[in-house]
Each structure stands twice: as C-alpha cells, then as structure tokens.
TrEMBL record:
PANTHER family for this protein: AMIDOHYDROLASE 2 FAMILY PROTEIN (PTHR43383:SF2), NODULIN 6 (PTHR43383)
Amidohydrolase-related domain residues: 204-381
SUPFAM superfamilies for the chain: Metallo-dependent hydrolases (SSF51556)
Domain of life: Bacteria
Origin species: Kribbella hippodromi
Gene3D superfamilies, per the entry: Metal-dependent hydrolases
Protein name: Amidohydrolase family protein
Pfam family, one: Amidohydro_2
C-alpha cells in the first residue's frame, strides 16, 4: 500500500530505534547454500524432493531486503545471494545486516545451541553503540546443575544458580510450551513433589544422557514459580515453532489459571510470538494487567503477508501491552528482517487506519513508538549492559 499521503508517519516508523526484547545471537561460522536453506525454516527435517526451502515467504524476503546490503539487486537469485555472502567475512555480513536493523537494545536468549553462535561480547562488537543484554533460559540453568549433587539438593542448587544468573539478566525465559505444553497444574509444586520429580529425573539421567533435557511437568512448574519470584519479566514461548512442540498444547489461553495465580506477585509475563494464537494472546493482554505479547517469529516467517498478522495482533490487545521482537536465531538476515518487515507492516497497517479517518497521524506515530521501543523500556527497566 502506498504511504505517500502520510510521509511523516512512514518517516516516524522508519526512525524508531527498536528494542528487540527477545532474540538470539548470530552464527559463529559461514554457511553454504544447503545449510542456509535449513536455517530459514523452523523445521528440522529436510525438504522433500521437488521442493525448496527457498520457495517461502522468509526466503523471498531475504532476497528482497538483504541482497542490496551485500551489493546485489533486490530479488537476486538465492545462489548469487549466498555466493555474495560467502565472499565476505562472517562478521562483516553481520555488521552490515545488524547495523541496518535500527535496533539499539538487544535482549538475547543464550539458552539454545549457544555453541553455534557468537557470545554476547562478540555480538556486541558487531553492533557498535547498541546495548546487548542477556535473557536467561530457566531450563538451561536447571540442566547445568542437575548432575552436581543428589535429588534432595536439586531444588536448592537451582535456586542458587538462578539467583546468580538473574543478577545480571534483563529477563528470564521458559520453553515449557516445547517441553510439556501449557496444560499443567498451575499451582506452585510442594517440596515433596519436587524431591520426587527430581529423583525420577536424575534416575533417568543416570541411565540415558538424552534425558538431560528437563521435561518433567513438576520441575518445569518449579522453574516458572522461581522465575516469578525474581520479579524479572518472564518470557514464555507460545504458538508455533519447530516440530518438537505439540501446537495444540501451546495456546496461551491454557495459561489462564496460572496467570491468575501469578498476578498478585507483580511479575510480568511476556507471551512470545504467539502465532496462530495471537488473538488469544491479545485477549489475555487485555484481561490481565501483567500480560504482554509480541508476534516476532511470525513476522519473519509470514514475510510479505505479515501486515495481516500485525493488524490482527492489534485488534484487541492494549497498545501499551504489545512489544517488538524478531526471535532471530543464527543468520543475521533474520535479525534484519524482523525489523524491516515490522516497519513495513506497521506503516501499511497504520496508514490504512489513518486514511480511513479512524486514527490520527499523531496517534499512529505514538503507537508505533510504544510497540517498537517504549513498552519494552518500561517493562524491562534500566539497561544493564
């Protein structure tokens, strides 16, 4: 949609210095064409014969928006794009793409496959002038201390480790949606329940290293409640992701009873990504003062169709409860696309509402700034990086 009628709106959205409140780091090593294709999908399965991972909204968006930053024309063939990428140092690719995102605060989840990514210090060196802070993944903290003692001491080991980790963190994250789903007992587990679950889990660990991934619902509930106790914003992945999860159990409406119990604590719950349950998340954000949402992952993967997702996320959710994220992991293209597609989508949606006479330009600009930056600054507070 043309934005010529309201250039001040387009310029304002383009100028928002974003806070990416949930993102991962970028690749430590170069990638070839097949590996790059694998990184542009949430699936961990190979594409079937006769199909290509590059025939997707996200891959088309890479060619459209990232190619010019590597000296190519928009829509350059993917083979040319990856060749141009490979001709540059990995850190140079990252500097060009990350620098063009217009993000000056990155809250990075360090809990997933960190060995394939650069650390926070190296990431920060690729985005000079930006703040880089950590989001601590609760499940990773527990898994790191699991074998340091017996089952009776596991709860205390976790509590101590979390206290240390949370001291320098901007927020916490849980992937209970992946490990179990949201159909869990909302109450805080008792010490006896935790000891029993700890014994059960550590016994499995002794028999099978693959059991190191915590998926016991009692232990996952323990993590959530200790996370709430810190007072830090607690991020929960909701909605679609890789084939590990059961999407039916990732509807955030299933969290309603737990959210009611958390509300008196004063801790904020950040529903991440949410698609295709972003309307349900919008209801929860309206109903509960401590619930927030974003549609980060969905914006990248819906590409040119993402304005519709952004508009749907703004149907019911209060505008002070919606945040920006990219959820980018790995290729810096995803970090850039999150920002570019969000700006394009927000400009299109807001322009449509202004043109219809339903919104003023001033209100549209104010809401864009709330979502892109101000809400996150309010919820996450002062910068720790």
């Amino acid at each position: 949609m043309s934005t010529d009628s309201y250039p001040e709106l387009a310029e304002a959205v383009a100028g928002v210095r974003l806070v990416d409140h949930h993102v991962h780091s970028c690749l430590a090593q170069p990638v070839d064409l097949p590996a790059f294709g694998d990184l542009l999908t949430e699936s961990d399965r190979p594409a079937p014969a006769g199909t290509s991972p590059f025939d997707s909204q996200v891959a088309f968006a890479v060619r459209r928006h990232c190619a010019p930053l590597l000296g190519l024309d928009p829509h350059a063939p993917i083979e040319e794009y990856v060749a141009a990428r490979a001709a540059l140092r990995t850190d140079e690719v990252d500097r060009r793409l990350l620098g063009a995102a217009g993000v000056d605060r990155w809250l990075i989840d360090t809990g997933f496959r960190g060995d394939a990514l650069v650390d926070l210090q190296a990431f920060g060196a690729r985005v000079p002038g930006a703040y880089v802070e950590e989001v601590v993944r609760l499940e990773t903290v527990l898994e790191q201390v699991a074998r340091d003692g017996d089952a009776a001491g596991l709860e205390e080991r976790f509590r101590t480790a979390l206290c240390t980790a949370a001291g320098g963190a901007a927020g916490l994250k849980s992937v209970i949606a992946y490990r179990y789903g949201f159909e869990f007992d909302p109450s805080r587990p008792s010490a006896a329940e935790i000891r029993t679950a700890s014994s059960r889990w550590l016994t499995r660990l002794d028999r099978d290293d693959a059991a190191a991934r915590v998926d016991d619902p009692v232990l996952l509930r323990m993590l959530l409640w200790y996370g709430v106790d810190t007072g830090l914003p607690l991020q929960l992945h909701a909605g679609f992701g890789d084939p590990d999860l059961d999407l039916r159990r990732c509807d955030p409406l299933l969290l309603a009873a737990w959210l009611r119990l958390v509300e008196p604590s004063g801790s904020n719950v950040m529903l991440l990504h949410c698609y295709p349950f972003h309307r349900q998340a919008g209801f929860l954000a309206q109903a509960f003062p401590h619930v927030y949402l974003d549609v980060g992952l969905a914006v990248n993967y819906t590409g040119a169709a993402s304005p519709a997702v952004l508009a749907e996320a703004l149907e019911l959710a209060p505008f002070g409860k919606v945040l920006y994220s990219s959820d980018a992991w790995g290729p810096a293209e995803l970090h850039l696309l999150g920002a570019v597609l969000w700006r394009h989508g927000m400009t299109e949606v807001l322009t449509r509402w202004v043109r219809a006479g339903e919104w003023s330009v001033a209100d549209a600009i104010r809401v864009a700034r709330l979502i892109g930056r101000d809400n996150a600054e309010r919820v996450y507070g002062g910068r720790r990086g």
